[in-house]
What we know:
Number of domains: 1
CATH superfamily: Hotdog Thioesterase
Distance between the termini: 27 Å
Oligomer: single chain
Structural class: alpha+beta
Order of helices and strands: HEHHEEEEEHHH
Radius of gyration: 17 Å
Shape: globular
CATH class: Alpha Beta
Largest sheet: 6 strands, antiparallel
Number of helices: 6
Helix content: 25-40%
Strand content: 25-35%
Amino acid sequence: MIYYWLHMFYIYIGSRMFWKKIKPSADLTKTRRVNILDCESLKYMANSKYFYYMDLIRYEVVFRSDLYDNTVRKGMFGVLASQKIIYKKPLKMLKTFDITLKLEGSDDKWVYHRQIFTQNGQICAVGFTKAGFWKNKNVQDMEDILRQSDPEHEPKTPSTEILSMFENDYETLKNSKA
Length: 178
């Protein structure tokens, strides 16, 4: 967990002081290396680490764009409502890989992202996230936040494919028993 927070601190400092600003709707690609701490015993990146890298790139967009000033500084905090991942091929230890974050669209409450993991030009995994911002126990208006963070923002409706991935999440929770 310490490694996670150190990495998050590095991204915050780099984003706020050294790296150029980006728009919240911009695609962002980062090249990373699968290190020894990311791997399971078979020399491939552990499945849990995909979610770790998905978090880091989402927060980098928040820190590098005006989203930070229009949300966190105003007392809102980011929530991850749901995430899904489809694995195709494992990422190999000590090899570099790219992760690309793409904005799939948003509605009044949530923003939807696609995160693509590639290594040697091949897609290894694709992750999908549904996220928002909360304040005073309420989900905030995502379209309003995006407009404040980027005056040139044009609303993009998420595809039916993306929406259908997340449509039964609440029912699954409601029907689950401890």
